[in-house]
Amino acid sequence: MWHLIRRIAPNLRRKPFIGSSNSDPTRTQHYHTSVVAPRQSGASTGLYGFDHLKSPNGFQRFVDEAIERSTELVSYISAMPESSEIIRAMDEISDTVCSVVDSAELCRNTHPDREFVEEANKASMRINEYLHYLNTNHTLYDAVRKAEQEKHLLTEEAQRAAHFLRVDFERGGIHLSADKLDRVNQLNIEISQLCREFNENIIIDPGSVDIFPSSRMPKSVHHLLKPIYRSTPGILSETVLPRDTMKEKGFRITTDPQNLSSVLQHVSDDEVRKMAYIQGNSVPVANLGILHKLIATRHELAQIMGYRSYAEFTMKPNMASSPAVVMSFLHEIGKMVRPRADEEFRKIRDFKREKSGRESGDLEPWDEAYYTALMKSSTYNLDSSVVASYFPLPQCIEGLKVMVESLFGATFHSIPLAPGESWHEDVLKLSLHHPEEGDLGYLYLDLYSRKGKYPGFAHFAIKGGRRISETEYQLPVVALVCNFSGSRNSSTARLNHWELETLFHEFGHALHSLLSRTDYQHFSGTRVVLDLAETPSNLFEYFAWDYRVLKTFARHYSTGEIIPEKLVKSMQGARKMFAATELQRQIFYALIDQTLFGEQPATPRDTSSIVADLKRQYTSWNHVEGTHWQTRFNHLLNYGAGYYSYLYAKCFAATIWQKLCQEDPLSLTTGTALRTILLQHGGAREPAGLLNGLVGEGILRHCNGGIIPDITSLCEEMKLGENI
User: Fold this and answer.
1) Judging by DSSP bridges, how do beta strands 700-703 and 438-448 pair with one another?
2) CA–CA separation, 46 vs 123, rounded Å?
3) What is the Cα–Cα distance from 279 to 335, expressed in whole angstroms?
C-alpha cells in the first residue's frame, strides 16, 4: 500500500479528487482546507507534527491507534457498503498505516537519539506484521473485487484504485492456498528483515584506510579525514601525543561513499586511491551473505506467485511489463553508447600514460574520477573550488524557491517548527503556498551530514495528499534528506555542481509529492509505477545546468558576482566529455540488477563473479578481484529488478526537456503544463497517457507487449550514433 522513493549515490554518476472523471485534465483544482496544518510555534507537538511522537515510547501508541482505527475500518468494509465507500475506507486504512510506516522509516534513518531509532524499528516491525494481516484479509479482498466489478458506479480514479488494490492483494498471495500464503507471508517478513540489515550494515561498516605520512593527502580533503598519529610502527593513537613522543602524523579515510568519491577525485597518489577504492568497495562483508539470501528469498517468492523470476514478478505492473522488454531496451541503448564509451576510455588511458610518462600501463577503476577531473579542468580551465564558490547552500535553496515561483506561481515560506516537531537543530520546515489555492504542502529539509545519519540523498514521504471531503484536502508532507558538509549555522557550506544537481533531483521528487492533487493517497505524488517515478526528478536536473536558471541565484559567496555565462558553458562542456562512460555505467548497473533478480541457474553463482563478468562484457573497465561493490548498492533493495527505471527516466526527461522546457525553462506556461498534465495526477492515471499528453508522440514506443522510451532525444543530446 505504500512505497518510498530513494536516491543514494554510491558510485552512480557518481553515486494512493481531481473532480469527476470527465473534468478538464488541464485545470488545477483548488483546495483550501488542510488536515495537516503547520503548528503554531508555541504549541508543542511530536515528531513531524504527530502528537504521539513526543517521546520514543510514543511510537507504541502511534502503532496501537493506527491498528485500532484500521480495525474499525475493516469492520465497516465487511458490511459491504457502497463501492465508493469501500475505496474511500481502504484508502484511509492505507493512509493510517502509511503514516506509521513512513514516519518510522524517516526516524530510523535520521534521528540522532538511539532510543527514538530503536522504538521506530520496533514500530516498523509491528506495523509491517499488521500489514501482512491486512494484505491477506479475505474480507477486504472480496470488498475490493466487488468495487472493481461495480466500476460503473465509480469515478475514473476510484476505478483505477479498485483495480490496483485488487492486484496488490493478489501480488501478496491472497488467492493462493493456505500453506502457500503462509510461506509468502514468511518470505515477505524475511525480505524486510534482510533489507533492514543490509542498510544498517552500510552505516555501521563504512570501512577505513590509514595513510602515512599526512603529506600524501591534499589539503582540499583534510576536512573529510581524521588525523591519527603513529608513535611506533603499527601502533596508532587517535589523540595528540606529547611533543617528545610524536613521530608521524597521518590521516584515517573513512571510506563511506561520499568521502570515497572525494578522495578518488582529488588525491594524486595512485597508491592512496587504490587503497581507498579497494577498501570502500570491499565493505560491508556481511552484506555478501545477506544479498545472497535476499536473491534466493525473492526468487522463491516469485516462483510461488507463478513467475519465473523476481524480475518478472516485479515488472508485471510497470510500463515495461517484462524482463524481455527491459533487456531489449538495455541492449539497444548499450549498443548505441558502446563506441563512444570505448573512445572515451582510450582518451582517459592515453591521458594517464602521458601524465605518468609511461607509454604503456592499464587504466584502473581508481583512476577514472581523478583523471577525468584533470581532463575536464585542463580542457575547460575548470577549478571545482571556483565553481563551488558560486553555490553557497542557502542561495541554492533560494534558487529552488525562485524556480518554483516562476514555474508554478507558488512560493516556499520558512515556517517555525513547533517544540518537539524536529529531530535535529539543523532541520528547516517550508510551506508551499499558492496565492489562489492556499497552502499546497509542507517540506522538511535535513541538509547536513552527521554521524549515524542515512548516508545518501533521499526523498521521504510522511503524509500523502488525499481528499477528505468536498471541502477538505489532506496536504502532503515530505522530507528531503541530504548530506552536505557543514551545518545550518555554518557560512562555509558550498556545493559542488554534482551536489547541486542532486539537490535539484531530490527537489523534483518533492515537487511531485507537493503538487499532487489525487483523491486517494494511494496515488499521491511519487506513488506511481516504478518506471515513471524517477522522471520528474531527472527532469529537474536539467534546470541545474541551464544558465537562465543558474543566474537567478548563483552568486559568489564573497563578491556577490553572478556566475559568469562562460563558466557555465565550460561546466556544460566538461559534463559532455565523458557522458557516454556515465551512461554506460548506468546500463551496467541496470544489467547487474536484472541478472541478480532474473531467472536463476540450477547452481547459484556468487554475486561478485556475476558483477565481474558483466563488467568485462559490457564495459572496457577492469574488475578488481576481491572487491564487491554491490554490497553497498542499496538500490537492489528498494529498486530490486527496477534500476532500469533510472534509464527510462533519463530518456523520458530528455524528451520532455527538449520538447517542453528548453525554449523557456522558467515560464509559467511550461510550469502549468508540467503541473496540470503530469505532476498533479501522481499515479492516478495511466503513465503512458500522461507522458504522451505532455509532449505528444515521440516519447515512448510499444515493444513486445510493453513500453520502452524513445531514445532519440537522449541520443541527440549526447550526439550518439555520430562518427567519433
Assistant:
1) unpaired
2) 16
3) 32
Rounded-to-integer distance, Cα 263 and Cα 496, Å: 14
Predicted pLDDT at 243: 57
Of 483, 714, 454, give the one whose Cα is nearest residue 582.
Answer: 714
pTM: 0.90
Beta bridge partners of 228: 250
Residue 649, Cβ density class (10 Å: 0-12 exposed, 13-18 middle, ≥19 buried): buried
SS3 273: helix
Residue with cell 465487511: 78
Put the strands of the sheet holding 438-448 in their side by side order. Answer: 6-7, 457-463, 477-484, 438-448, 428-434, 411-414
Q: What's the distance, CA 416 to chain centroid?
A: 27
232 exposure class (CB count in 10 Å sphere: 0-12, 13-18, 19+) = exposed
Looking at this protein, which amino acid is placed at residue 115?
E
Question: Quick one: how far is CA 249 from the chain centroid?
Answer: 39
- Could you please report the per-residue DSSP string of 414-462? E-PPPTTT-SSTT-EEEEEEETTTEEEEEEEEEEE--TTS--SEEEEEE
Residues contacting 167, CB < 8 A, separation 6+: 317
Amino acid at site 446? D
CB atoms closer than 10 angstroms to residue 684: 26
C-alpha neighbours within 13 Å on the C-beta side of residue 338:
14
The alpha carbon of 360 is separated from its chain's Cα centroid by a whole number of angstroms, namely 40
* Preceding peptide of 56 cis, ω within 30°: no
Report pLDDT digits (tens) over 378-395.
Answer: 999 999 889 999 999 999
SS (H, E, C) 170-202: HHCCCCCCHHHHHHHHHHHHHHHHHHHHHHHHH
Grid cell digits, residue 389: 564558490
Cis geometry, peptide bond prior to residue 213 (ω within 30 degrees of 0) = yes
Task: Tell me how far apart the alpha carbons of residues 501 and 504 are, in angstroms, rounded to a whole number.
Answer: 5
Candidates 548, 539, 543, 540; CA nearest to 654 is 539
The span from the CA of 127 to the CA of 119, in Å, is 12
Question: For every residue of 608-652, which 3-state class applies, written as one string?
Answer: HHHHHHHHHHHCCCCCCCCCCHHHHCCHHHHCCCCCHHHHHHHHH
Task: Compute the distance between CA of residue 205 and CA of residue 285 in angstroms, rounded to an integer.
Answer: 9
CA–CA dist 475, 463 (Å, integer): 8
Active site residues: 506
> For residue 626, which of 283, 132, 200, 166 has the smallest C-alpha distance?
283
Within 233-326, strands assigned E span 235-237, 248-254
CA distances from 436 to 167, 412, 524, 615 (A): 38, 14, 21, 53
Tell me the per-residue pLDDT of 518-562, one tens digit each, with 9 for 90 and over.
999 999 999 999 999 999 999 999 999 999 999 999 999 999 999
Q: Is the pLDDT of residue 605 over 70?
A: yes
